Amino acid sequence: GPDELLSSTATRRPFTMNDSTSATADGNDNKKFKGVRSPCSPSRVLHLRQIPSDVTETEVILLGLPFGKVTNLLILKGKSQAFLEMASEEAAINMVNYCTSATPHLRSQPVYVQYSNHRELKTDNLPNQASTQAALQAVNAMQPGNMATASTLEAEGGLFPGHSPVLRIIVENVFYPVTLEVLYQIFSKFGLVLKIIIFTRNNQFQALLQYADPVNAYYAKMALNGRNIYNACCTLHIDYSKLTSLKVKYNNEKSRDFTRLDLPAGGGQPPMDPAIASTFGTQGVIFQPYVGAPGFGPVMYFPQGPVSTSAASGRMSNPSVSGNSVLLVSNLNPDAITPHGLFILFGVYGDVLRVKIMFKKKENALVQMADATQAHLAINNLNGQKLYGKLIRATLSKHQTIQLPREGQEDHGLTKDYSNSPLHRFKKPGSKNFQNIFPPSSTLHLSNIPSSVSVDDLKNLFATTGFTVKAFRFFQKDCKMALIQLGSVEEAVHALIELHNHDLGENHHLRVSFSKSTI
Fold first, then answer.
1. For the RRM domain, which residue ranges apply (predicted)?
2. The sheet that has 15-18: what strands, in order across it?
3. How far apart are CA 192 and CA 173, in angstroms?
4. Which of 16, 60, 216, 502 has the most crowded CB, counting CB atoms within 10 A?
């Protein structure tokens, strides 16, 4: 049974576990506890299995801390098990519920959490508990308002010897785009973030993040390593960097120094707008329980996908929390718009399942995305965009789905089902398309170009379709890809609709997307 190991690991020393039927052990290896509680019955004492042999008390306590105060701990290192006592049964229930869906890890090893048969953990008479009590006291000092105590402990060489304030972060299974802003929102929960640099190495999204204090880095690593940013994807792998400080030259989407708002953006761009900078605030929130820990299933921060930050409050908000994935698109040009055009354009920001142009009011349409996250991405990037001479409006619809016309019902081709379309950009998990989502721009990224197609061929294709080509260049290392700059952003939007999936011959269909680059 889950608690039977207690008696053998308390060998030859007094040990007591109180429960509704008072269970004790007096040093007899063969004496087992006979608690009356079922292993499934909630208890504020939790039983942890498969604890690494070299784990510290602090690391185990930190597993429970996001769910509430931890009041006691017993580690049975010889059996790779531990007992964690929470301050309340509610906190224990939240932890078990969460860890059932999202297995926690200690030192890259999965740890399994269940209820103990006992209501209370009494370890007063056990030897070697002084270090446990010291760890409990130190970790509790990390609660808001007690940061000075923890910093003092760290300065005295206590819990965090030799740890760098710089973390190296690798994000695996990048299903949704991970940005510098997303990392700031997550990691600022654990302290004041000074600098962030993001980059790609060995086809992996990586980042370096510097805290003001090694204490913050330690607790962020303990709480976040192995967690998912979004539901079942974007997994964080965190380690300490050998660097002790980061040098940031530019404030842009790849790097930021939050202590130097005067830094240029690079490429001759002016410094960051103060209004944008204020979005990030100037103070980190010290060790608040991470959002989503109690009762949100296997999600760390953003159960519905990417979030936005309120510049006024500096706090996280999730506009897609309603879960609606149907968009109302209005102020369309009824003479030019088609279901296919909306499918291609909105498909840049997610997989479009259905499109319906209103029969009696053709300047309005419904677009159903694959999920609420993609719907929100489309709103962020396309609301207010000029399309066929009109500024379109994109908002969430009150409808939860688009109904297909009944058999025999006349629809005039205004409702289309694209659920099984081969043109979906995001159906493959981990696709690079997730890392290349940009707002409409006058520069387009072209790919899947056969070797027989020349610069002039592509320029003529766009020109003869009615677009003004201002510049063009192939990628130096890969002539299957190119950039083309058109006369305006609106022209580029129209060109993407017209020429995405254009047949170039040799079984190659042109792939077109918006680029953040210029020529």
1. 44-118, 167-243, 325-399, 442-517
2. 23-25, 15-18, 120-122
3. 27
4. 216
